[in-house]
C-alpha cells in the first residue's frame, strides 16, 4: 500500500465541534430536517475560521521550502489575509499582505488585526494581476525567501486542509452514528469546497457537498472547484472527482459580494436569536440565507441539506441597520452540543475502510483509496 505524507504545521486545537441546531431548524421548518453546524469558526488563532485549515498545509510547505516570509493577497478586509498574518507569526514567519482597496482606509476590523499581527501591508485600489509574483521577486532580490499563497489560500496545497476536514467530519458522524443528507458550504475562491469534494468523491465522506456561492456565477465557480479538486486529488493520489460531484448554487449571492440583503440579515438574526451564534454577513450569512430558504422549495430539487460548515466570526460589529423581526421556534428546544469524536489532530484514512467501534482515539475513518496521512506535523521550527 502506498503511503503519502505531506508537510503540515498544526494550527487547530483538535476537531471542531459539530453542533445540532435544534431551535434554528425548527424555526425554519417545524417538521423539516435538523441542521447541524460544524463550528470551524471555533479555531484558536485570530478570529478563527476556515483558512487556518488551509494554512496548516500552506505553511507546512513554506517551512519545508525554507521560506522566511509569506505573501498573500485579498480584499482590504480579507479574512484569509488576516488569518495568514496570525498563523505566520506562530511559526516565526513574516507576513506581507497585498490588499486591494483605497490607500487611505481606516484601520478597522481585519485590517486592524493585520496591523496587530505586525504584517507588512500594501494597499492598492487597482492592483496588477501579477502583484504577488512581482513582490516575491523584489523580496528575493533583498535576500528574503518568500512563499506566495494565492487568493483565499485556494490551491491544491491549501485544499488539503478541507480534505482533512472532510475526514474529520466523517469520523465525527461515525462516532455519533449520525447520517446527513447533504453538506452545505460557503464557496468563494473554491478551496474549501474542493477539499470536501475530494473527501466525498474518494468515499471518505458520504453526504454530497453543495457550495453556496457568495460571488462567482455558478458556472465559473463549478469550473474552479472541479479544477482545484482534480489537482488536489492528484496531489495525494486519491481518485479524481467526477463533474457531478461539484454542485454549486449562486441563488443567494444577493446584490453582490459583501453586500447585505434582507434574506442574509434575517438569517443572521435568526441563528443569533435561536442559537446564540454569531455569523458574518459576507460568507456564512449568505449560506444561511440559503438554508432558511428551505421553507420555499429547495432550488436544486431533491432532499434539503442538513449540515452547514460555519467558518468565521465577524471581526467587525455587524451592521444590521434595518430592524428585522426574526421568526422564532414554536417548539421548546432540545439541544445537544456534540464535540464529536476524540479531540485528536491525527487523521488517517486507510484503504478498504476501517469501521471500528467507538470510544477510542484516534479514529481510523471510513475510507476508500490509498492510505493517506494528511497530518504529519512539520518537524521544523516554530510553535507546536
Ligand atoms: C468565513 C468564510 N467562509 C467561507 C469562505 C469561502 O472559502 P473559499 O474561499 O475556500 O471558497 C471564506 C473565504 O474567505 C471565508 O472567509
CATH architecture classification name of the largest domain: 3-Layer(aba) Sandwich
Provide the gyration radius in Å. Answer: 20 Å
Proportion of beta-strand residues? 15-25%
Biggest sheet strand order reads: 10-9-8-11-3-2-12
Sketch the topology as an H/E string, one letter per element.
EEHEHEHEHEHEHEHEHEHHEEEEE
Mean pLDDT: 81
Number of strands: 15
Main sheet makeup: 7 strands, mixed
Q: Tell me, what is the CATH class of the largest domain? A: Alpha Beta
Each distinct ligand: pyridoxal-5'-phosphate
Judging from the principal axes of the Cα atoms, what is the shape?
Answer: globular
**Can you count the helices?**
10
* Helix coverage percent: 25-40%
Uncertain runs are 317-372, 375-384
Query: How far apart, in Å, are the first and last alpha carbons?
Result: 30 Å
Structural class category: alpha/beta
- Whole-number tally of structural domains: 2
Q: What is the CATH third-level topology name of the largest domain?
A: Rossmann fold
Summed up, what is this model?
With 384 residues, the protein is of the alpha/beta class. Helix content is 31%, strand content 16%. It has helices at residues 22-28, 51-64, 79-90, 109-116, 131-141, 160-175, 191-201, 218-235, 262-275, 284-292, and strands at residues 3-5, 18-21, 35-39, 69-75, 94-100, 120-124, 146-149, 183-187, 209-213, 247-249, 307-310, 337-338, 348-349, 364-365, 371-373.
Amino acid at each position: 500500500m502506498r503511503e503519502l505524507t505531506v508537510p503540515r504545521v498544526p494550527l487547530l486545537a483538535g476537531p471542531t465541534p459539530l453542533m445540532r441546531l435544534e431551535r434554528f431548524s425548527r424555526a425554519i421548518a417545524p417538521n423539516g430536517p435538523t441542521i447541524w453546524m460544524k463550528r470551524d469558526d471555533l479555531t484558536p488563532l485570530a478570529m478563527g475560521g476556515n483558512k487556518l485549515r488551509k494554512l496548516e498545509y500552506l505553511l507546512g510547505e513554506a517551512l519545508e521550502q525554507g521560506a522566511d516570509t509569506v505573501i498573500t493577497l485579498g480584499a482590504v478586509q480579507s479574512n484569509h489575509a488576516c488569518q495568514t498574518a496570525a498563523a505566520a507569526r506562530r511559526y516565526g514567519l513574516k507576513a506581507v499582505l497585498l490588499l486591494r482597496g483605497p490607500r487611505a482606509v481606516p484601520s478597522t476590523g481585519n485590517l486592524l488585526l493585520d496591523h496587530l499581527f505586525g504584517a507588512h501591508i500594501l494597499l492598492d485600489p487597482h492592483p496588477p494581476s501579477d502583484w504577488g509574483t512581482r513582490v516575491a521577486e523584489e523580496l528575493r532580490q533583498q535576500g528574503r525567501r518568500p512563499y506566495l499563497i494565492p487568493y483565499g489560500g485556494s490551491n491544491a496545497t491549501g485544499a488539503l486542509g478541507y480534505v482533512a476536514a472532510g475526514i474529520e467530519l466523517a469520523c465525527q458522524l461515525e462516532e455519533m452514528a449520525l447520517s446527513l443528507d447533504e453538506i452545505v458550504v460557503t464557496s468563494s475562491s473554491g478551496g474549501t469546497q474542493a477539499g470536501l469534494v475530494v473527501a466525498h468523491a474518494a468515499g471518505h465522506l458520504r453526504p454530497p457537498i453543495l457550495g453556496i456561492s457568495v460571488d462567482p456565477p455558478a458556472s465559473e465557480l463549478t469550473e474552479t472547484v472541479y479544477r482545484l479538486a482534480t489537482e488536489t486529488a492528484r496531489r495525494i493520489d486519491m481518485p479524481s472527482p467526477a463533474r457531478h460531484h461539484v454542485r454549486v448554487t449562486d441563488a443567494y449571492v444577493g446584490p453582490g459580494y459583501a453586500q447585505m440583503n434582507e434574506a442574509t440579515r434575517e438569517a443572521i438574526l435568526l441563528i443569533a436569536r435561536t442559537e446564540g451564534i454569531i455569523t458574518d454577513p459576507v460568507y456564512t450569512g449568505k449560506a444561511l440565507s440559503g438554508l432558511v430558504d428551505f421553507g420555499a422549495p429547495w432550488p436544486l430539487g431533491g432532499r434539503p441539506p442538513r449540515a452547514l460548515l460555519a467558518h468565521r466570526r465577524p471581526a467587525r460589529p455587524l451592521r444590521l441597520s434595518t430592524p428585522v423581526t426574526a421568526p422564532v421556534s414554536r417548539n421548546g428546544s432540545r439541544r445537544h452540543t456534540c464535540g464529536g469524536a476524540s479531540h485528536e489532530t491525527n487523521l488517517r484514512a486507510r484503504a478498504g475502510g476501517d469501521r471500528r467501534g467507538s470510544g477510542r482515539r484516534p479514529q481510523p475513518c471510513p475510507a476508500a483509496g490509498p492510505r493517506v496521512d494528511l497530518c504529519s506535523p512539520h518537524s521544523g521550527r516554530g510553535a507546536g
